[in-house]
Amino acid sequence: MTEANxxxxxxxxxxxxxxxxxxEATAGAPLLEAALDNGxxxxxxxxxxxxxxxxxxxxxxxxxxxxxxxxxACNTPCTEGLVVDTRSDEVADAxxxxxxxxxxxxxxxxxxxxxxxECYLQDYSFEHGSHHxxxxxxxxxxxxxxxxxxxxxxxxxxCILCRRCVRFTNEISETNExxxxxxxxxxxxGTLEGRPLDNPYSVxxxxxxxxxxxxxxxxxxxxxxxxxxxxxxxxxxxxxGCNIKIGAFREEIQRLVPRRNDAVNETWMCDAGRLGxxxxxxxxxxxxxxxxxxxxxxxVALDAAITAAxxxxxxxxxxxxxGAIGIVASGHLTNEEYFRLAGLARxxxxxxxxxxxxxxxxxxxxxxxxxxxxxxxGAREMGxxxxxxxxxxxGILNAVEAGEIRLLWIIGSxxxxxxxxxxxxxxxxxxxxxxxxxxxxxxxxxDKATIQLPGATWAEKAGxxxxxxxxxxxxxxxxxxxxxxxLDGEIFAALTGALSGRAAVPFVPSSVxxxxxxxxxxxxxxxHQSLGGAGTNPADVTEGVG
Amino acid sequence: xxxxxxxxxxxxxxxxxxxLGIPATLRGLRVTSTHFxxxxxxWIVGRPQVRTVMVPEEHDPKPAAFRGMPVxxxxxxxxxxxxxxxxxxxxxxxxxxxxVPAETDDEVERYPLVFDIDMGRCxxxxxxxxxxxxxxxxxxxxxxxxxxxxxxxLWHKDQLLTPVKTLERRLEHIRNDYGxx
Lengths: 546, 181
Description:
A: Alpha-Beta Plaits, B: 3-stranded antiparallel beta sheet
């Protein structure tokens, strides 16, 4: 049996019977994990798949054949022939008792609690609790909305002391800010004086908190969760590619939360990524196309600006040759868009001076990568690299200063400014005949643009990102672009059409990806549909590991 | 049975109903003028025959079960009971409620910064009232919503706030009705 399933002696498979259903589990793994993985729901608070076993909530008690007392499923290792009952009257009684005790001091302020709607206390109270309180004593008062850290709000009354947050700071962030103070009935979660909950992963405690005790300050009193439309996507903050869900309400992003992907981010994400969505709906976002004439920059319709950009590209190419055109892109476009851009640069413009500007920041050995671009690896794999005898970023900058490059097309000038430095970027803008910017966020260069095209953000696009190890993951549109703004891929398609004189090919990400799969070796055999929720690493597939 | 097409001469129908409408109008006029003269006579001799309610200055009291337009309950200090939980917004079948929550330093930390009801959309179903966990939105006896523009039909928080003592009967009624005791 074990050989047939390819398991080794290290993790032999055992057979466990839960509610009359025989399931196969890894020997020694928590019974609760085996049940959950097989779709058998056992209520639990303190158990978390990525944290150590605590056994403090007693909610996951089950009846095990041959044992007199109920056992907690989270701390029961799977062994051969275990027969478990999760639905007996005794189990139901135990659950009702646990719920009653947990709710004795719960403030029941669900109407003002951000967790309401995704709260385990609410869910299990409906499913397993009794619907009436038997206590008449006043509920214990606690501290409300304590700013326990710069990005987390704590409500002591709602806490059920499951210690998930404490274990998170011990085991995952390894910063040990949170601990349990006091004993017995009067214990509470807190921080030491002068050591607030302030680490790069602090808001994850709000995710692990099964109730509304720890909440994200950013999302606090913002929007009820049942109004959110959640879209599976990938964080654009750095090249790690953490899986996320974008929660949007009426075309506005309300929050980002991590989505479990054991191959990338487990169930975590960093605070910078989580709170870094503000630029999507920012007031100063670039929403208009501009073209510079004698009187300065004028707001024009986007197609007029695209026509102007095509004319400028054609003119410079005819007058000075393809070598006078340089393209610098940021690392935030999708693979599909890079593929179209690379095709445009290589085949239509025949320029070889193409490179990326990827700003570097702080990184660590957990999730945060130093290169702050979601898809720099994808860009290079799509062919956005200096061609033969072409110029890289440094070469492009020198060529502009030497007057060899007359037209620079920058996609994402904020990244360009960060990499090159404001002073040099401005000097370079001054040396150019034509500066085309394709931007979402304004930068120091925005005023210098000859032609400015508004771009779209990752939250508005469908497509794929390739993270730093080569894992190809899908992003999906959560909101619409502002009116009159095209996706960057659509701009590339329109420009290709205008420059080649042929009708523009509509930009359809999934069919572009099919072209990528046919053209780029590493992506062979992939398709949007086959990537699934967790993405695929082509290297794993070819080696037969994944 | 096979479908049949009947061609209707609309002009003839209109003329016909016009002719037929005259006696109907006269009948109606007879009723109203009878009342008018009977009342006039009663007023002259000091014995009114028909009770008159001077709407809109006066209104008949409505039964507690009457569902007029939804209003926000104002507590004695003039503030709303509402904590902007959003359940009415969710329950509303015609999406006529719009709430923007905000935080305050009061004991109850959350309140509606914006609470708008589009009375042009509201269909007086009372689901908001049933969903409310705070008895903060109730169906009042008010029915007069006329306005000169659509914008005028959008009632804001300050217009919706109604003193709690004028709503006691309805509150008592819904406590019985929804078994909230």
